[in-house]
Automatic annotation (TrEMBL):
Repeat is among the record's keywords: yes
PANTHER family: PENTATRICOPEPTIDE REPEAT-CONTAINING PROTEIN
Database matches in PROSITE patterns: PPR (PS51375)
Species this chain originates from: Sphagnum jensenii
Record InterPro entries: PPR_At4g14850-like_plant, PPR_rpt, TPR-like_helical_dom_sf
Positions annotated as PPR repeat: 5-39, 40-74, 75-105, 106-140, 176-206, 207-241, 271-305
UniProt superkingdom: Eukaryota
Keywords assigned by UniProt, alphabetized: Repeat
Identification of the protein by name: Pentatricopeptide repeat-containing protein
Organism lineage: Eukaryota, Viridiplantae, Streptophyta, Embryophyta, Bryophyta
Amino acid sequence: MPLHDMVSWNVMIVGHVKSGKAQKALELFQQMQQEGVKPGPVTFAGILNACASVGALEEGRHVHKEIIENGCESDGFVGNSLIDMYVKCGSMEDAWRVFNRMPLRDVVSWTSMLLGHVKSGQGQKALELHQQMQLEGVQPDSVTFVGVLNACASLMALEKGRLAHEQIIQSGCESDIFVGSSLVDMYVKCGSMEEAWRVFKKMPSRDVVSWNVMIMGHVKCGQGHKALELFQQMQLEGSNIFVGNSLLDMYVKCGSMEDAWRVFEKMPSRDVVSWNVMILGHVKCGQGQKALELSRQMQLEGVQPDPVTFVGVLNANMLKKKQVTFVH
């Protein structure tokens, strides 16, 4: 292109941010200015997202100065991007300064601040923000409710969680899969498995997170068999293999190879992670021969070993040699 205008630069910057190439986006932003092209609100929002994704706080502060110089700080889109950047970079003080100066604060502004306090371990402050936003006439959305429920879970505030649940029903957000998973998580962490079950059963679709929360909730309550039943049901509904691997890992680390084998045998598909967990589990238990048998079986089933598998096999061989030496 003989000439690059602001629109073409914006497309390139935002494209690199969306592709996970934040550093390249920052370089393009510098190059754009060197070529004398003035950035606009879309440019600033894109570059703030780049700073947020890599935790570049000082770079973000420098961009903030440029935003003020260009008279773009009052733009709602830019203001929300500034708050998001400061929150994700861990500077709630800077986020508050931007938030307090905003002429208009929408649900995105409030939700970003609320989530920032949840992330910082300030659940009570997050709940206060939830009340304040409603007093100012801003209605929470599904993302806000996820933050509120996470705050209730962190504080083990069951009654406040129940009140939030009532609001969620009234707003029509209960069918949202992320809200549903957060409700299940809140009830489990607050020790109310009965209410967690009620939400879980009503969910129109259940993702790997909701299944995982229910399974781990029963494990935490000492109901291992119920956890296994849930795992079987989850597999029948075709959920992600990640949950099975997590459950395998948990049983192996707890030293219960018997339960690990029950899960392993019921898994409809097993990847290299599943096999590695079992191989290393048997090595940990001093069963080198069994670990070697598993490594051979995984290859027969067409699963290619990775570096973790080789570490397990080497340890199994060393263990086997020690056992032979001891016998002799």
